[in-house]
Amino acid sequence: MLIRGLRPPNRNEGEIMTIHLVVDLGFGDSGKGAVVSKLARELGSDTPVIRFGSGPQAAHQVISKDKDIRHVFSSFGSGTLTGNKTVWDSKCLFNPRAFLNERDALIGKGVLPSILIHSDCPVITSYDIAFNEVTLAEQNKKGGSHGTTGHGIAATTQRELDGYHLSVQDLITPIFLTDKLLGIQQYYKKKASSIDYMSYAYKFNTPIDHDISNAKDFAKLSKSESVVVSSSATSRVLEEAPYGTIILESAQGILIDPEHGVFPYVTRHSVLPSEEYITKLNSILEIYAVTRSYHTRHGAGPFPGEKLGYGNSNPFEVNERNVYQGDFRSSYLNMDLLEYSMNKLTNWCNKFPNDTSNLHLVITCMDLMDDKPKVIINGEVKELADRKEFFDLILKYFGQYLSELIYTESPYLEDEFIAVD
């Protein structure tokens, strides 16, 4: 994969910086982790990777360059294997136990991750996850789930909106931790009673000891050099970012963004950074829009083209059927869906001056495309002669927007990205 231009010398205050934004054009699971890891390796280990939204329900798989380490990132950025620091921004939900478990797993693989966590990050508790299970059970009673990963994301987001706040700062300065946890417990007891308290009461009668223990374990770790909590995490790392270069790692995909997907089968957090977020950074945007060579959806909700079939299997696939998301579904690459999400992305890009953004389309999993590629156009399967016709079709649809078209034979082997001339 080519990165346009060389890194400038260290910038002075107020000078333009470069943001490399990685975003998914589908329903998620397109290979963002591999793209972030590749960028991190090419830009250098001193380039920070910022997770700016969503939470630990992300599952971004990365295989190291020499293929000896394989990891699915949820609570850390996907540049971790190349030594890049993660910044967990204030809008990201944080689960201390999931974080501790993943950190231990990385250390077990010989990787000591470095992370800077914003102290205002909302914290996911065991009660949020329990209510996630209650919600799923009730939806299934009424005919089917709206889609969930089982991590308590929607429950935590709604609780915060309802005024029952718990932040990372509460974990390391626990003066009100017990009171807040008891308040959250009562909040969910009340919510459960409005559904069917007798069926679900046991989930919220458990003591707060588990969450207190998680908080204590995290607080001890936050005193180490590799885990830093700060009330100015993003501004701090931007000041330290060499050459004015950062990577923004999105989670999930545009087709389940709350503004662009079909409600209620959407995530609760925007897949794209806010206009204010980008504007205040005074930056040039290098946008890497990622899609597989076929479409996938893991979870409930409309999936145009699914019934038209897709038979190939991915040997690196980490998505499997589970009780929360159900089947991992697939279809041929649907040009109508891809055009829809590209239009949404380019409309977002148009909020910024024309000369401040470049769009790179990254197609992963080309090894799973047939010798005579099949795509969906206007609701019908169309067979193409070869890869050249496929790439010509992509450029016919989107060439006017693109600075670069990139593909990879495999979704995760990061040294195999190729630019299409």
Oligomer: single chain
Shape: globular
Backbone structural class: alpha/beta
Low-confidence stretches: 1-13
**Distance between the ends:** 12 Å
- Sketch the major β-sheet: 10 strands, mixed
Number of helices: 11
Topology as a string of helices (H) and strands (E): EHEEEEHEHHHHHEHEHEEEHEEEHEE
Count of extended strands: 16
Strand portion, in percent?
15-25%
Radius of gyration: 22 Å
Query: How much helicity do the residues have?
Result: 25-40%
- Order of strands across the widest beta sheet? 7-6-5-2-8-1-9-12-15-16
User: For the residues shown, what is the average pLDDT?
Assistant: 85
Description:
The protein has 421 residues and is of the alpha/beta class. The protein has 11 helices and 16 strands. The strands form 3 sheets. A 10-stranded mixed sheet has the order 7-6-5-2-8-1-9-12-15-16, with helices on both faces. A hairpin with a 2-residue loop joins strand 13 and strand 14 (380-383).
